[in-house]
Input
Amino acid sequence: MNKVYACIDGQSNTAAVIDWAVWSAQRLDVPLEFLHVLERHPERAAISDYSGAIGLGAQDALLHELSEIDAQRGKLAQEAGRRLLIAARERAAAADLNCVDGRLRHGELVDTVLEMESDARLFVLGEHHRAAGGARLHLDHHVERVIRSVKRPVLIATGAQFLAPQRFVIAFDGSTTARKTVAMVAGSPLLAGLPVLLAMAGAETVLARRQLDEARQSLAAAGFDAATALVPGEPEEVLPALLKSQGAALLVMGAYGHSRIRQLIVGSTTTTLLRVSELPVLILR
Amino acid sequence: MNLESIRRDWLSNVRGDLLAGLVVALALIPEAIAFSIIAGVDPKVGLYASFSIAVILAFTGGRPGMISAATGAMALVMVVLVKEHGLQYLLATTVLTGVLQIVAGLLKLGRLMRFVSRSVITGFVNALAILIFMAQLPELTNVSWVVYAMTAAGLAIIYGFPYITRAVPSPLVTIVVLTGVAMALKLDIRTVGDMGQLPDSLPIFLLPDVPLTLATLQLILPYALTLAVVGLLESMMTASIVDELTDTPSNKSRECVGQGVANIATGFIGGMAGCAMIGQSVINVKSGGRGRLSTFVAGFFLLILVVFLGPWVKQIPMAALVSVMIMVSIGTFSWDSIRKLREHPPSSSLVMIATVAVTVSTHDLAKGVFVGVLLSGLFFAHKVGKVLRIDRSIDAEGGVRTYGVVGQVFFASAETFIGAFDFKEVVPKVHIDVSRAHFWDITAVSALDKVVLKFQREGAEVEVTGLNEASATLVDRFAVHDKPGAVEQLMH
Output
């Protein structure tokens, strides 16, 4: 529980991921490690020869050919990965962060992240691909699998640029998960000193007000400048507009309260908010 | 089995799988027909079998991208059964084979494959290639020169056409060209139509028409056992070949159960038992097939092509099929193993040759593998038995003779162990230190007893030390765990 792991992949918003990771590591005062995973895709064929004829030593020849292609690709990927890590460490060093490491691993992102979990305080990930036109229709399945599997906090950096957050918003629904989220925020140095808005979507009821107030009080007791907002409507519909008005902010929410079955059919609020949020998101368990 | 793995297994290589599946389907047709002929049944039995085995294993198999269908290895086992008892008993045997394979899968017998050494696998593959080739000989004996010319032309097209283009499967070109020539010149040679019935409809469910009695079971059980073993052996070997080619893991137990399910279903639609095919799987991987979709497409198209092109399939000359099968035989054979025959240790080469020899002479791959595994076990025991040294020393006064035993004592080295002691020597005291030896079995213990007794009879006083350390390996519960130092302790 003593490191920030930043998963970088060399795509468009790698710089933002690095900067968010540096920011987090500095605030948490823990070492930072960059992680680049070399993913192979053996499920996709690299060659295709439709001649259908097999001659002398066909099997050995095919094995030789296939492994040759893999070897070449592997070398290039390793080289690119190494350069990516060097560049990331230089960028971190330029931001005056010294305790920085880099690590190259083979495998799948989610498996690698799970391997590192016992040692991790926070994972920082980039959103991998954004559909042209800016509308995120579906969440990248890499990101989704990581936030579904890991038990540690995950920060999803959005956008190509890092903007130091001036405030943060907690997506609050009164559930146990949400109350735990508030407690975790209150106890962590990551967001200390930043003003917070507790945003809740739903009807104006005494219960909702009371839950919001309790949460606000526990944050205030931890020294946060906390405000509340109760907006009528479904969270997926009303929260994005509210978030847009917040400027350079960070969205904080709990992960996946519902069962897998329900998520499969109706989708979860967490996933929907992740899809529609323009802001970087911190997901807590 | 979640959505993620289903998506990865089926949809991550759609284009490659579709095209590779087509290439494989075209090569499967001649094979299924040829193997039906080997087994002595109508071509439709093999064709229905290839369809159902491939399609079902696309879902139930444990190795995506592997091709299973009616195979030569299985066909050879059925010959006598079909000749003496007929098709219905073959169908019942096929169902029983499937049941046995499911049991084997549930018992995780696939793990036993680790006892099958590389040399045995090579021998199996080579024997298979030889058997496929030999099965073509009846088509090539006592026939007119036209058949030889056609076969030679077929081989020339198969191996020559890829130099022109690799976009079209050359076995398909061979079949189309040779069929066209035979029809145009009205050549009087044997065609597929002469070999028996072809499928004229989609397969239907039917129960094998055999009496459900103990006598039936007694009759078919030996065949079913052999078929189950041969099928699983070839499937497991093919799976590890595909694993190696694609550098991905497979689920061997799931494959065993999957083979069983496929065979049961195949028996009920009038197909013969089958298993994975080495040659076709290599063709599939080479053509770019990786996922389950490739296996499914291969089986599905096979049936579509045969049912709708039936009248044309009938016209294919046997010479065209023979040339395709010769290609499969050549492609399956491991030529590397012949080249390296001298390089490899003589014992390995001997195991390989013995596997081939037994298989080819008995037409039973299970027997060949059994002999191969037995021989490699014996050779291994012989080799390890040599890891034994007995040091002798005597104290200054000449009163105590010390024997220090270092190494492995078991049935293969017990005789050497006893022979190393000098019973003729007259000493008052003998000290046998076995703390650096391992006693692996009862033979080793009784050898030590024998030595002690012999010295005592000569009047010497015997002291054995280190027996606790030495016999730690004797207990069957003994296991080297990955605890640090466990292996070092064993190697002391």
Q: What stands out?
A: Strands of chain B lie at 68-70, 274-276, 388-394, 400-409, 429-439, 461-465.
